[in-house]
Design goal:
single chain, 226 residues, alpha/beta, Rossmann fold, 2 domains, two-stranded antiparallel ribbon, 11 helices, 11% strand
């Protein structure tokens, strides 16, 4: 079975929490009111894991286009977007980005661990397939789920992004799985691109951080009892 990462297995932390933590890393303490205003501006400018930016400045266009193919472009795109928001906090753009790179900046959905454990115990191999510009293996290790994932097909490592069938085929190859007997679970039309690789696809709506997103429903499709 294949799973998307963001919006399917985990969600980025609340924007206000994100901004408060990054500001603290820069030596600044923000009250909730100021943090809320700043978070709104930063999310509008473009946050990894958030909605698409309202506008990508021309000088960031190439990095934006390549953000899921190269780690340096991913960082440059999102720190560059954050830097378009004026603040008096030196280093804030990098601190905001660095929250992404560690598990503290993410919340696995409540359904994630039970679902992955049930699949693991049933002998169903699992790969995480993600359009992403950094390594998420440490996140699963910190969450105690590293042993529940058999492979990672990450776009910046493979040079392919969803919905390209190649990334799904590569993930199936990592598992030794027949695409026609493999289910891809995600939250966007790009995840449904797995159908072009011969897989079945299930698209679930992303939920807010910390709330169940219905991931457990995949167990019946995999022939597993919860």
């Amino acid at each position: 079975m294949l799973f998307d990462f963001h919006g399917t297995l985990a969600q980025v932390e609340d924007p206000v929490t994100w901004v408060v933590a990054a500001a603290a890393a820069c030596g600044h303490e923000l009250d909730r009111g100021k943090a809320t205003v700043l978070a709104d501006r930063l999310v509008t400018a473009g946050r990894a894991g958030g909605p698409l930016p309202a506008r990508v400045p021309p000088h960031l266009a190439e990095h934006w286009s390549d953000r899921d193919l190269y780690a340096h472009s991913h960082r440059a795109a999102y720190t560059g977007l954050a830097a378009t928001v004026s603040t008096d906090m030196e280093g804030l753009a990098d601190a905001l980005y660095d929250r992404l790179l560690g598990p503290d900046g993410w919340l696995p959905y409540p359904d994630t661990a039970p679902t992955l454990r049930t699949l693991h115990d049933a002998g169903v191999k699992v790969a995480v397939v993600s359009n992403i510009g950094f390594d998420i293996r440490p996140h699963f290790e910190a969450w105690g789920m590293a042993g529940l994932v058999d492979a990672y097909a990450l776009s910046y490592e493979l040079g392919r992004t969803k919905p390209d069938p190649a990334i799904f085929l590569r993930a199936c190859g990592m598992l030794g799985a027949d695409p026609e007997r493999t289910l891809m679970v995600g939250d966007t039309p790009a995840d449904a691109g797995a159908v072009r690789a011969g897989c079945a696809a299930l698209v679930l709506p992303a939920a807010e951080p910390g709330r169940p997103n219905g991931l457990g429903a995949t167990l019946a499709l995999a022939g597993c009892a919860a």
